[in-house]
Design goal:
The complex is a heterodimer of chains A (253) and B (439).
Chain A lengths: L1 E7 L3 E8 L2 E9 L4 H15 L9 E5 L11 E2 L2 H12 L5 E5 L4 E6 L5 E6 L8 H10 L4 H10 L11 H13 L4 H20 L7 E4 L8 H9 L3 E2 L7 H10 L2
Chain B lengths: L9 H8 L14 H11 L1 H10 L3 E6 L5 H5 L5 E4 L7 H4 L6 H7 L11 H8 L8 E7 L3 H12 L5 E5 L11 E3 L5 E3 H22 L5 H27 L7 H13 L4 H21 L9 E6 L6 H8 L2 E7 L3 H4 L8 H9 L8 H12 L6 E6 L9 H8 L7 E5 L8 H20 L3
Parallel strand pairs in B: 1-2, 1-3, 3-4, 7-8, 7-9, 9-10
Antiparallel strand pairs in B: 5-6
Helix pairs in contact in B: 2-11, 2-12, 6-7, 9-15, 10-11, 10-12, 16-17
Classes of the chains: A alpha/beta (253), B alpha/beta (439).
């Protein structure tokens, strides 16, 4: 059976087409102001990537913030459940998933069967989210991909104390004026966000920890997270597709 | 469930027209008795103003949740109400009442608990009449509320303060008494609270010109116990029935009545009788507003934005346990002990005056027989009460494997609706998944 999952995130829409539990097509698009249209286009692109027509997909599951408006979905499931399902397929035996998305961060604890035991998410503000990193990247004169390059090239990270996006911008401007390198600032932000996410975990996380979501692509972030959590962190291949994969697998039943 | 524009919801449209705009966003139990419950809660200002105009003595009983109103009800011309309840006004009114903005101007900004709305009411003379006496508990109470009350005192009010000490378990060998909730408490603690309540009793008598004798107090306790018993009955039916027979918001309103009787104890009993009859009838007929397989949730803390409870129900959850900070107001008051001692004992049943671990343990012990599957800790923004129950609850239920989610519920949750609803849905999905792996 061919199924698909579409993850309508706040910053990007991701689509995955799966046949017999294996990814055969994928696509990623910026969310834009009309997530329903983007989701349809993204799904069509994933189908094309698989060499299929949209009609070949027998069941579709939607997840992410836009899940309610994604057309044609047979199921609508939260990203908590989808990331857990996706990671259980990609990295069996994982006991915790950290996902840093566009507008929230999540720590999902899994039971030995790979099912969600409980979870925690950030409240209120953009601290510790992809959006926070985007704002910082813009202040450093680059985008998220450029930020990743900067963070990966740093030696010693600068100390960033503020997690309020507005205050952090001010702090970075001040540090730049003091002569801190952009690379050190980017690495400092990564370390600060990792510490914030680790605090979200609250209790000690045991067992293998996976890191999913688009932010996991940033070089050095997984290492910073591992230091903050005090344990090894594994990034699955194409981490931002994990939720869409989970949705596609859930669609298969 | 019906919306405000339903033909039978006319009684609520009156309150909507009066400025409670948020009522249009809620859904209501269609039973006339439940609509009467809403009307009773929303009409408190009218009742208080009428009573004061007729020479009644109005007492604002703050922070203490459930004890002082029993003392006040022993005085025929006195009525107690709960100024802290003003925290619901900005939500019901979609913030148009300006209470929070007024509190901002008085220096108590959004970093504080939404009960700060009461400052705006006092300052503007709106939403409730100026009380003839303010009585305010301090001590092991919410720090935010203490700050609000101190600011109120700074405005020229002169509250009668009384101290509610922190709860502690008896030391080994220490003289102890068993509280109505089954906990043991040091006898000296009960005596300390009783001394404080005796001081309040004397001050109340002096202020109203009516000495509060034991006979009047015992009569008041008997009537309060009728309210408490009725609330407990409704709650047991609502939380324990296979089909949820009472929506979550109506259950919250019912529990709130136990705190202060909405300033009319007799009418309060009539309202509760009506709700109890509806709920009992539904239980007998096996009907409810949620399917039998709805996920059974233990919910901690009241929410300012009432829609959040309805979001849980829309997502497929139902309340099977609550800790709306009202446990002490539902505990039966001994009719055998000296009245002040009996009141002191129920005051110490307040789960908010001890550690978060104690509160979590009491909530879990009470709810566990009802087949709880998940726990929601609804945090009140800025409130020092309820800020730490998430980890404590997670620890308390760790061996049971109930997933716990902690959410912060703003006064008006519009901006956070996506996040809150997503978390509630994820929690219910998690609970449903767990059902499939049970033996």
């Amino acid at each position: 059976m061919i199924t698909a999952g579409v993850d309508g995130g706040s910053r990007a829409v991701k689509a995955v087409v799966v046949a017999d539990g294996r990814i055969i097509g994928r696509a990623v698009r910026d969310s834009g102001p009309q997530p329903a249209l983007v989701a349809e286009a993204c799904l069509a692109a994933a189908c094309a990537d698989a060499g299929l027509e949209r009609a070949a997909v027998s069941r579709l599951a939607a997840t992410g913030y836009a899940r309610a408006v994604i057309p044609g979905a047979d199921r609508r499931v939260t990203e908590i459940t989808c990331h857990a399902r996706g990671i259980a397929a990609l990295l069996p035996g994982t006991r915790a998933v950290v996902e840093v998305g566009g507008q929230d961060s999540k720590v999902i604890r899994l039971d030995p069967n790979g099912r969600v035991a409980d979870f925690a998410m950030n409240d209120r503000c953009a601290a510790g989210t992809g959006r926070f990193l985007e704002v910082v990247a813009a202040r450093l004169g680059t985008d998220l991909d450029g930020f990743a390059v900067l963070a990966g090239a740093a030696g010693e990270p600068a100390a960033i104390s503020s997690m309020c996006v507005v205050f952090a911008e001010s702090e970075i401007v001040g540090l730049m004026a003091q002569g801190h390198a952009r690379e050190a600032l980017a690495a400092g932000v990564v370390a600060a966000v990792a510490a914030r996410v680790a605090a979200l975990a609250g209790r000690e996380l045991t067992g293998p920890i996976a890191f999913t979501g688009g932010v996991a692509r940033i070089p050095g972030f997984a290492d910073a997270l591992a230091r903050a959590l005090g344990g090894a962190v594994v990034v699955p291949p194409q981490p931002q597709l994990t939720g869409a994969l989970g949705a596609a697998l859930i669609a298969a039943g | 469930m019906i919306a405000l524009d339903h033909p039978t919801a006319g009684v609520l449209r009156r309150w909507h027209a009066a400025g409670n705009l948020r009522l249009a966003d809620l859904r209501f139990d269609p039973a006339p008795e439940c609509l009467a419950l809403w009307d009773f809660v929303l009409s408190e200002e009218d009742r208080l103003r009428a009573a004061q105009a007729a020479g009644g003595f109005i007492v604002g009983a703050m922070k203490d949740l459930g004890t002082i109103p029993v003392l006040v009800a022993a005085i025929p011309r006195a009525r107690a109400f709960y100024p802290d309840g003003a925290w619901w006004l900005p939500c019901l009114q979609r913030q148009s009442g300006g209470q929070l903005a007024a509190a901002d101007r008085l220096g108590i900004g959004e970093g504080f608990c939404p009960v700060r709305a009461l400052l705006g009411c006092y300052a503007a003379g709106s939403d409730f009449p100026s009380p003839d006496l303010d009585i305010c508990a301090v001590g092991a109470t919410c720090d935010d509320f203490s700050a609000v009350a101190q600011r109120l005192a700074g405005l020229g009010r002169d509250p009668l303060w009384w101290e509610l000490p922190a709860f502690r378990a008896p030391d080994p060998g220490e003289a102890a008494v068993t509280l109505p909730n089954g906990e043991a408490a040091p006898a000296v603690l009960v005596a300390a609270v009783a001394a404080e309540l005796q001081r309040v009793r004397v001050a109340l008598g002096r202020a109203t010109g009516t000495a509060l004798d034991d006979l009047a107090l015992r009569a008041s306790i008997r009537r309060a116990n009728q309210v408490r018993a009725r609330v407990r009955e409704i709650r047991e039916l609502a939380l324990g029935a296979p089909y949820s027979p009472l929506p979550a918001v109506e259950l919250l309103l019912t529990e709130i009545l136990a705190l202060h009787f909405c300033s009319d104890l007799d009418r309060c009993l009539e309202i509760l009788d009506g709700v109890q009859a509806v709920v009992a009838d539904r239980v007998a007929r096996g009907v409810g507003h949620q399917p039998a397989d709805a996920v059974r949730v233990l919910w901690l803390n009241p929410v300012a934005d009432l829609r959040v409870l309805q979001w849980l129900e829309e997502a497929g959850g139902r309340l099977a346990g609550t800790d709306f900070m009202t446990a002490q107001a539902m505990a039966p008051i001994s009719e055998d002990l000296p009245p002040i001692t009996a009141l002191a004992q129920v005051a110490l049943c307040d789960r908010m005056i001890g550690s978060d671990r104690r509160r979590a343990a009491l909530a879990v012990a009470e709810a566990r027989p009802r087949g709880i599957e998940t726990v929601v800790v609804a945090r009140v923004p800025g409130a020092s009460h309820g800020c730490s129950e998430g980890p404590a609850m997670a620890q308390a239920v760790a061996t049971m494997g109930w997933p716990v989610v902690s959410i912060e519920v703003p006064v008006v949750a519009d901006a956070a609706s996506g996040q809150i609803r997503g978390r509630l849905e994820a929690l219910l999905e998690t609970a449903l998944t767990r059902r499939t792996v049970r033996p």
